[in-house]
């Protein structure tokens, strides 16, 4: 019950910054909404919440591989050892089905994941939250137009 309440409380405390819909080769992937404490994007700093509503089935392995690829592209693997994070995510993340929701909350002391309103768990590494959020929010992110929409700049 608390996990169900936790996402609702987080969304009640945070305000939407922006929203985008990602499609790859005309296939819808997800709709993403970014939230912050004041509804404005001030950089990759907590608190931030990223809500992903999936439009297709995606395997856990595909999510993990894509996450690792994005970190490699952004050079995050040169600053941090990402393998322990990948191993933790492998334990946390489920298989994704069309219609599922995955929520990432980047807090002051930890980063938490929720799946369909239920808490999956958290990662207690001060560097993880910013590294994970960078996949969508860094200026070098793979989908620049979507980044701009998420941060409310477009």
From TrEMBL:
Listed InterPro entries: Chalcone_isomerase
Domain Chalcone isomerase: residue ranges: 24-139
Top-level division of the source organism's lineage: Bacteria
Name of the protein in its database record: Chalcone isomerase domain-containing protein
């Amino acid at each position: 019950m608390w996990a169900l309440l936790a996402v609702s409380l987080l969304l009640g405390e945070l305000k939407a910054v922006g929203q985008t819909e990602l499609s790859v080769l005309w296939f819808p992937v997800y709709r993403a909404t970014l939230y912050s404490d004041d509804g404005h994007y001030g950089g990759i700093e907590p608190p931030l919440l990223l809500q992903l509503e999936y439009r297709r089935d995606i395997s856990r392995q595909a999510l993990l591989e894509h996450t690792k690829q994005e970190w490699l592209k952004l050079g995050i693997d040169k600053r941090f050892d990402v393998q322990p994070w990948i191993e933790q995510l492998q334990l946390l993340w489920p298989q994704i089905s069309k219609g599922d929701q995955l929520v990432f909350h980047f807090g002051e002391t930890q980063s938490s994941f929720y799946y369909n309103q239920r808490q999956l768990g958290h990662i207690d590494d001060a560097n993880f939250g910013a590294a994970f959020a960078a996949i969508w929010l860094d200026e070098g992110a793979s989908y620049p137009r979507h980044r701009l929409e998420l941060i409310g700049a477009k």
